[in-house]
Specification:
With about 325 residues, this protein is an alpha/beta fold. The protein has helices spanning about 15, 20-25, 95-105, 105-125, 140-150, 160-170, 175-185, 205-210, 230-240, 265-270, 285-300, 305-320, and strands at about 5, 45, 50, 60-65, 70-75, 80-85, 130-135, 155-160, 175, 190-195, 215-225, 260, 275-285, 325-330. Helix content is about 35%, strand content about 25%.
Length: about 325
């Protein structure tokens, strides 16, 4: 069973988020400086990179992910990417072709089925009933299919046309994202899920704000996302800075992952948008999905060593109780006026 870290609050300690010595060596030069060359970037407030989770002050991690600079919030420890003034926005697709196999193979579906069961069992403790659900960023429809098979009135929403087609071919009701708001009656949903979606959004707070009215009072929002507190992150960055050819960090930071939340940061964001934080759960990435991802990366010359090491690494993480994903459960207030 996954670990449940009920009601964890505050800023994660240095043991979970990286070396305190690293922070001690940061100087004023690391504090995000004003930059007015990207006026439409919601991560820039008065030209200064600002935490998309809590609005806190950011410090540079002195690390690049493609054409993005990596920053860390000094208040909630969330890490996030900001496009460099001379950079080009990442143009990769959320649903690259390899992901249809990564999420669609039998082993991946079995692993996700157990994940969904564990999360829904925990979620059911915090609401009266779960029947009508919406999965935002549903991809090929794994969660919606799992939910329908268990008697839920489950639908999905997605932006990728090919993924929508694959989900509909399974007999699922899936809306294009633009039609979702008009297709779903406000206050009608018991559950909204986003599995590995919120980290991709440039403006996650606005996305949550737009979804909250679709929940009934007492309805739940469940979010799965990479956990910034994963202990291997600072180690991989340190190695990359010292020995550039060793690129272990390439499998921990991606240009299409715009935010790496801390529990404290995601909690702040959800509460600011009118949700009550219930609990968070700690999990690892599904093994079959990660193997498919590393196989794909190896085709482009990235992740070669990591692909071979992932099996032993996953077993070691399991033995040590180490996790790289968090799942947060939040509830819309029963007292909605």
């Amino acid at each position: 069973m996954p670990a449940v870290r009920d009601g964890r609050q505050g800023v994660p300690d240095a043991e979970n988020t990286g070396s305190g010595a690293e922070e001690a060596h940061m100087t004023e030069i690391d504090v995000a400086q004003p930059d007015d060359r990207r006026p439409d970037d919601p991560r820039l407030v008065d030209g200064v990179p600002t935490c998309p989770a809590c609005g806190g002050t950011a410090r540079s991690r002195r690390y690049r992910v493609d054409d993005y600079d990596l920053y860390r919030c000094v208040e909630c420890r969330t890490e996030f990417l900001v496009l460099r003034p001379d950079g080009r926005p990442h143009d990769g697709h959320y649903w690259d072709d390899y992901k249809f196999e990564a999420y669609g193979n039998e082993e991946s579906r079995a692993e996700y089925s157990q994940r969904y069961a564990d999360v829904l069992a925990e979620s059911s403790k915090y609401t009266s009933t779960i029947h009508r659900s919406l999965d935002v960023g549903c991809g090929i429809g794994n969660f919606a299919s799992w939910a329908v098979d268990r008697g839920l009135d489950a639908v999905g929403a997605e932006v990728d046309e090919e993924a929508i087609g694959a989900a509909r071919a399974r007999g699922l009701v899936v809306y294009e994202l633009e039609e979702m708001a008009s297709a779903i009656e406000p206050g009608s949903l018991d559950l909204i899920t986003m599995w590995d979606v919120i980290e991709h959004l440039v403006d996650p707070a606005t996305a949550v704000r737009d979804l909250v009215p679709l929940l009934r009072p007492g309805g739940l929002m469940v979010l799965e996302t990479p956990d910034v507190a994963f202990p291997l992150r600072p180690a991989a960055i340190a190695v990359r800075k010292v020995v550039e050819p060793i690129r272990y960090s390439d499998v921990l930071y991606f240009a299409d992952h715009r935010t790496y939340f801390s529990v404290a940061g995601l909690r702040h964001l959800l509460e600011a948008e009118g949700l009550d934080f219930m609990t968070d759960m700690a999990m690892r990435s599904p093994n079959a999905k990660m193997r498919s991802q590393f196989d794909h990366m190896s085709e482009g010359g990235r992740g070669l060593t990591m692909g071979r090491l992932y099996g032993p690494l996953d077993r070691s993480m399991n033995a040590l109780g180490m996790t790289n994903k968090m799942i947060v459960i939040a509830r819309r207030s029963w007292d909605v006026r």
